[in-house]
Design a protein that fits this description.
Blueprint: H1 3-9, H2 14-25, H3 28-51, H4 70-83, E1 87-91, H5 97-108, E2 114-117, H6 124-130, E3 145-148, H7 159-165, E4 170-176, H8 189-202, E5 207-211, E6 230-234, E7 248-252, H9 254-264, H10 280-310, E8 314-316, E9 328-331, H11 335-347, E10 369-373, E11 385-389, E12 395-399, H12 404-420
Parallel strand pairs: 2-3, 2-4, 4-5, 5-6
Antiparallel strand pairs: 1-7, 6-7, 8-9, 9-12, 10-11, 11-12
The structure holds pyridoxal-5'-phosphate.
Pyridoxal-5'-phosphate (PLP) binds next to α5.
Length: 426
């Protein structure tokens, strides 16, 4: 079989393949730039592993309380080094990104404090954590109030509004780097730095936390490099490199991390306990792989942007602008478009390629969501995956790809599904 026949065996027709080739041809320079960033970040990770004297003994499992878990401590040292924090909490007991964010917030806020989001509505699952949507156990129930300043129409910060919103109660500012399920632009690390500088100038003692989900290794700098006190993310996204089977991280100022640690375990215990259960090897190796995995995901995102943009769909970011996370939003305008796209991603997967994804009411979300993922790790969105809430504007959020070739196949397959359903004209 030659290459074209190989793609045909996977259900990609000649016109779709040719269209893809044309798009790929136009992206050579962008891909080179992505590879150079990956190279830089790879060096950053290796340097951190060497500086922390990572050794084979760190891959051994601990059980029970997990006292003297040298691997866990070394891993946290590596995360602190890579992301330039004083301390880190990197644990399988942080069961997801939402959990890590909940711990970071609930541990650093006290009754009577106020939480401010100066970048608009946070990620859907945080609405219940904060209490924007009524929820048992929310920060609101514990007497933490919340204020939000939306981005301006053009996506810029509403500095005037932010200045007014800061008050004597404001204790913590949460800044979400990625667009999440919105079509606003993702924030660059530079822009996050400008925002933090503005806030700290007016209120130096406020804690600035960045929800860094999907942002790790996309740029050469990370939020802690531009003044953030804490950054938080999920290990089944970028920094787990597709190998971490669970986990979350919080990196930043030592006092913030200490508060998070005693909240995760118990006052008096903190970081000293928490068995790593034999997961350290995949955490280390995943972090080692992460820069190149993120590069693959970025190539897929840009390929999808260029391709669907050319077909007349609205895409965020567009095919030419710079990238600050791995998410690609494509607005199809109809439920059928979202569903066909997700079916294509599913059909291209190495796992569960034969199942048909359907919209369902996921906990934490306020509309049915369709998700496509044929992943080795359940729900891992660093693996090729797509999801879309079935509500206007009927946009799909697509991300991941452990290899560029798989991401490419998935996107071609999605286009094939749209074309076959008469929803896209080549
Ligand atoms: C994914 C994500 C979260 C939540 O992470 P989960 O691991 O899904 O709980 C929070 N914020 C942003 C921006 C995300 O992308």
């Amino acid at each position: 079989m030659n290459m074209d026949e190989m793609y045909q065996a996977l259900g990609i027709s000649k016109p779709v393949l040719e269209f893809g080739k044309e798009i790929e041809e136009s992206l050579k320079e962008r891909f080179l730039e992505i590879d150079e960033n990956a190279e830089y970040n790879q060096m950053k990770v290796i340097k951190a592993m060497q500086d922390n004297r990572v050794s084979e003994t760190h891959f051994e499992a601990t059980t029970g309380y997990g006292y003297n878990d040298a691997g866990r401590d070394a891993l946290e040292g590596v995360y602190a080094s890579v992301f330039h924090g004083e301390s880190a909490l990197v644990r399988p007991q942080l069961i997801s990104g939402t959990h890590a964010l909940h711990i970071a917030l609930s541990s650093n806020l006290r009754p009577g404090d106020e939480l401010l989001s100066p970048v608009g509505k946070p990620y859907d699952t945080l609405e219940e954590v904060i209490g924007i949507r009524e929820s048992v156990g929310s920060l609101k129930e514990y007497g933490v109030s919340y204020r939000q300043v939306d981005l301006l129409e053009d996506g810029s910060f509403d500095y005037e509004g932010i200045e007014k919103a800061l008050n004597e109660k404001t204790r913590l500012v949460t800044i979400q780097r990625s667009k999440g399920y919105q079509t606003r632009p993702t924030l660059s690390v530079d822009r996050i730095g400008e925002l933090i500088a503005f806030i700290k100038k007016r209120k130096p003692d406020v804690i600035c936390m960045v929800d860094n989900c999907y942002g790790e290794f996309v740029e050469r700098r990370e939020p802690l490099d531009v003044g953030a006190d804490m950054m938080v993310g999920s290990l089944i996204k970028n920094p787990g490199g597709g190998l971490a089977p669970i986990g979350g991280y919080i990196v930043g100022r030592a006092d913030c991390i200490e508060r998070a640690a005693v909240r995760l375990t118990a006052p008096g215990l903190g970081k000293e306990v928490g068995a790593s259960l034999g997961l350290n090897r995949s955490f280390f190796q995943g972090l080692f792989m992460a820069p190149t995995v993120v590069a693959s995901a970025l190539k897929g995102a840009i390929f999808a942007a260029r391709l669907y943009e050319k077909l007349g769909f609205s895409v965020v970011p567009n095919g030419t602008e710079s990238r600050h996370d791995i998410i690609q939003a494509i607005t199809f305008g109809t439920p059928e478009g979202v569903i066909a796209f997700c079916e294509g991603i599913q059909a291209a997967a190495p796992v569960d390629s034969y199942v048909t994804p359907e919209p369902w009411d996921m906990p934490g979300y306020d509309a049915p969501v369709i998700m496509a993922a044929g992943a080795f790790i359940q729900g891992a969105s660093i693996e090729l995956s797509a999801d879309g809430p079935i509500k206007p504007p009927y946009a799909v959020y697509f991300q991941g790809g452990l290899t560029w070739y798989h991401a490419k196949l998935g996107i071609l397959k999605s286009l094939q599904k749209l074309k076959d359903a008469g929803l896209a004209d080549l």
